Amino acid sequence: MAVNIALDGGLAACAVMASFWLASPQTPWVWPHLLPLTGALAIWLIGLPFGLWRLRWRFVSYRDIATLAAAGVVTALMLALLMTGAGLPLPSPAFPIILALVLVVCLTAPKFCYRLLREPSAGRNAATQQAILVGTPETAELFLAAHAHNPDKPYGVTALLALSRKHVGQCLHGLDILGTADNAEAALARQKPDLLIITTPNLNGAQLQALLAAAARHGARVLRAPSLTQLAPAEQQAELRPIALEDLLNRQQVRLDRAGMMQLIAGRRVLVTGAGGSIGAELVRQLAALAPAELLLLDNNEYALWRIELELSELHPALPRRTVIADVRDEPRIQAVMRGFRPELVFHAAALKHVPMVEANRLEGLRTNALGTRIVADAAAANGTGLMVLISTDKAVNPSSVMGASKRVAEMYAQALDVAARHAGAGMRCVTVRFGNVLGSTGSVVPLFRHQLAQGGPLTVTHPEMHRYFMTLREAVGLVLQASVSGSGAAAIPDGGIFMLDMGEPVKIVDLARNMIRLAGLRPDEDIKITFTGMRPGEKLFEELFHGHEQPAPSGHEGLLMVTPRTAELEAMAAAMNRLAAATDDDAAMRVVEALVPEFLPSAGLAVSAAAE
Q1: Is residue 283 within 8 Å of residue 347, measured between CB atoms?
Q2: Residue 235: which region, alpha, beta or left (left: phi > 0; alpha: psi -120 to 50)?
Q3: CA distances from 16 to 70, 76, 102 (A)
């Protein structure tokens, strides 16, 4: 601070002397020994409100230069008025303007030159990797500012790619904008960079996939810069991170009714079954942030339950919670848990979801997914629960697998309960929510691909035309909570209505595999092979979101659709569930399922596969 004050005073004194000479080189100075000192005193006085003594020369910015210029102008006017008031003649009528200009130059130029001397060039560095920035000029400029203050640069920036054609041909920080992200081939062939660094958060979806493919063809890795709020040019390095797989889905952020969620959850006792699974654990995380009175986590997997409980103890240590090891098929145990806890809200996420595994263990799948749902629902209803939310799947639509059929039976029982409660004007409401695959969930294709990548490949895909719907785990659970809010009203759901999450466009599994290879910095079919293993029992090439007789309709909230599949009377469903519970072998159980779900075609997936080949 003292050095700043001394330097600014000396610069102001020099500016006063230089201004006198420039204004009138032939005219002797009046009190030359006092006027420079007066200039120094004036800049010290004016510098206090402008904060000049706090500026760091190395990090002086354009805003700081504007502040210095304003201080110089005010100081010049003050000195001119002081001389006039003291009866001293001005060297020339233009003296105040000359003094202002010279003061501005003397105060700003040394600081700006010092910054330039201390700031290394952001351009090519022969000793490092070479990088091309991809983004808007604004985000690229912020990134370059942060990059310039990294003393150990692992890469040098050589050029830019814009998002809009109107910026092509322009220059930023001495770097040429060579083209656009949509047409990167020419720039990559010409520059041969080691890295592409994306500086904007808005580049995702198909545009990002195309850029990844182009980069892979030219042997360049693609990384993403931190968001603008994370860039602190004067203090931090611009840490790069890999492209997230979620960025490739191009899903738009849906506005959620957080106030409605808080009103539904806050101050209530909430139970989550399957709390250790991917969906159940994310439900627990989001519910915990909505201030429930108490949270009960139920699962039959000890390790998974311990893991989510440990996470809650770190994130929400003050939240009252219980952990219960229980199997949803164990009716006495579930009844006892419900009597002891008396939940006001139940989220039923417990299920067996792996299609081939359930196909090989049909009776177990039906007992968990269908009978387990009845046990949880009946126990909740008998113990004062006001709302139960059933997590279902798009595989329940025209099911070709036992897993899908078992979830459709569970849906039908929940529908029957809800219709009965609605018509009676009392009882537990049931909200059913269907959605497709969750990216990275336990047992899904993404963890499998990651494991296979770690082993060096190959990545296994069942069929080259296999398509699936995907959404992120956080988005799916957020929309489940939104459906819970929307469906908790007295007349929010038509009889038998089911919420269907808007899944967007289907993703080709082989494209997903190729993109994951590229995200790992490798080349598909060269560094890592992709092999096709053939469709497994119960699988479909294309998942369906709606049954042929289901007409989707808007639900009144973004991201949610409403479908109304056929329903059954509660008495008939209860009788069918009893027959299913009495079945002792697969054949007897499947006869009950086929009677309940006539659209169930166990061989549909394999038939489609054979036709396609």
Answers
A1: yes
A2: alpha
A3: 16, 9, 8
- Grade residue 475 by pLDDT with cuts at 50, 70 and 90: confident
186/178 Cα distance (integer angstroms)? 9
Closest residue by Cα to residue 374 from 412, 337, 427: 412
- 388: tokens are 């139960």
Residue 444 φ/ψ, nearest 5 degrees? -85, 180
Measured in degrees and rounded to the nearest 5, phi and psi for residue 223 equal -125, 160
Cβ atoms within 10 Å of 152's Cβ, excluding its own = 6
Least Cα distance to 188 among 168, 207, 165, 160 occurs for 160
Q: Using alpha carbons, select from 555, 600, 566, 593 the residue that is nearest to residue 577.
A: 593
- Using an 8 Å Cβ cutoff, are 425 and 383 in contact? no
Q: List the structure tokens of 59.
A: 């990090």
Nearest by Cα to 470 from 496, 501, 499, 449: 501
Superfamily of domain 264-444+475-507+543-612: NAD(P)-binding Rossmann-like Domain (3.40.50.720)
Secondary structure of 513-575 as H, E, C letters = HHHHHHHCCCCECCCECEEECCCCCCCCCECCCCCCCCCCEECCCCCEEEECCCCCCHHHHHH
Fold entry, domain 129-243: Rossmann fold (3.40.50)
Spatial CA neighbour of 346 closest among 369, 317, 378, 319: 378
Question: pLDDT tens digits for 98-133?
Answer: 767 776 676 666 766 666 665 554 444 444 678 888
Of 153, 395, 407, 540, the catalytic one is 395
Diameter over CA atoms, the chain: 117
Helix (H, G, I), strand (E, B), or coil: what is residue 439?
A: coil
Residues constituting the chain = 613
Cα 135 from chain centroid (whole Å): 18
The mean pLDDT value of the chain amounts to 79
Give the Cβ contact number of residue 497 at 10 Å: 21
Pairing relationship of beta strands 321-325 and 294-299 according to DSSP bridges: parallel
pLDDT digits 0-9 by tens, 284-299: 999 999 999 999 999 9
Which residue, among 154, 145, 153, 143, has the nearest Cα to 201 in the 3D structure?
143
395 is catalytic: yes
Using pLDDT thresholds of 50, 70 and 90, give the confidence band for residue 607. Answer: very low
Look at residue 348 and give its three-state secondary structure: strand
**Per-residue pLDDT at 50 exceeds 50:** no
Residues of the chain with CATH 3.40.50.720: 129-243, 264-444+475-507+543-612
Rounded to the nearest 10 degrees, how much is the dihedral formed by the CA atoms of 593, 596, 597, 602? 20
The reported pLDDT for the residue numbered 351 is 94
Region of residue 440 (left: phi > 0; alpha: psi -120 to 50; beta: else): left
Place of tokens 């860039």: 231
Instruction: Please answer whether residues 502 and 249 qualify as being in contact, where contact means their C-beta atoms are separated by less than 8 angstroms.
Output: no
